[in-house]
Amino acid sequence: MKEFNENENKNISKILRKEHIDGKAILNLTVIDLFRCSMYMGPAMRIVTLINIIKESKKRAYSSYRSLPEVLNKYKISNSFGDLQQFAPGKALILIEMKCQ
Q1: What's the total number of domains in the chain?
Q2: What is the pLDDT of residues 19-32, one digit of tens each?
Q3: What's the whole-model pTM score?
Q4: Which residues of 41-71 are buried (b: 16+ CB within 10 A; e: fewer)?
Q5: Does 70 map to a domain?
Q6: I need a surface site. Which of 8, 16, 32, 43 has the fewest CB within 10 A?
Q7: What is the C-alpha separation between 64 and 61, in angstroms, rounded?
Q8: Structural domain that includes position 59
Q9: By the 8 A CB rule, do 47 and 34 touch?
Q10: Is 28 helix (H, G, I), strand (E, B) or coil?
């Protein structure tokens, strides 16, 4: 995929700031949305392609696991959480509780 040049980067950044599009909102953009923001077709198509790649990679990160034991087994982590000892709250927690009262 063709990289964005410096001028395109500035124009894209300017449009996204003007429209108040943040990190989460950008993942919902479509080509039509970008056209409405006066973006040219080439950069709009490349952005949407990148958005789709990001969305797909987020799905793949978790979809291969079916259960917690499967994940624990893969990373060789013991499944005996009942054997863990609880920790006693330290002095800092007691001081915070005293200040909150």
Answers
A1: 1
A2: 888 878 888 899 99
A3: 0.51
A4: eebbebbbeebeeeeeeeeeeeeeeeeeeee
A5: no
A6: 32
A7: 7
A8: 6-64
A9: yes
A10: coil
